[in-house]
Amino acid sequence: MKRLIFLLLILPAVICAQGKNKLVTDEKSDKPMLIGLCDRTAFADSNFSWWFNSEYDYYPADSVAVVRFSKRLQDVKITIVMGTWCSDSRREVPRFYRILDQVGFNTQNLTLICVDRNKTTPDNLVEKLDIKLVPTFIFSKDDKEIGRIVETPKQTLEMDLVKIIVQ
């Protein structure tokens, strides 16, 4: 009986985990890339940790700007569309995670989608998101988009967030 209960408790987690952090081979570089729904744990893989950790660790987030939007950010849902093959994504996404960690953002309000070089996923996750460049950070409140940061910030990630979140 204990085994049955254990299986019933662990099975949903195993099923959900199988759908995330899928690795495929990038045809252009012949290196691994992430595709589809992902989470931050994917960046622990040595194929990605070398660039993720260095950008994350050495990014000096603007704490003054962060204070301006930190409380209002908690009511916002964020979708990140990125490519692990893309240099802009490799720079901006770890920095963005650094900011989210600084404000204690609830990652249940965060969706990370990795795309191929055509900016698509096998299950068409980004088809309706109008993705032209990556990374794209989409901010929504009450199921309405309130702003985006596309490819690179206009000023800095923090100042762009102030403009989108504080309005």
**Name of the CATH superfamily:** Glutaredoxin
Structural class: alpha+beta
In this structure, how is the largest beta sheet organized? 6 strands, mixed
- Could you say what the CATH topology is called? Glutaredoxin
- Which second-level CATH architecture applies? 3-Layer(aba) Sandwich
**Total separate domains:** 1
What is the beta-strand fraction? 15-25%
Supply the CATH class. Answer: Alpha Beta
What's the gyration radius in Å? 17 Å
Order of helices and strands: HEEHHEHEEEH
Low-confidence stretches: 1-17
Question: Mean of residue pLDDT?
Answer: 91
The strands making up the biggest β-sheet line up spatially as 1-2-4-3-5-6
Q: Roughly how many Å apart are the termini?
A: 56 Å
Let me know the number of strands: 6
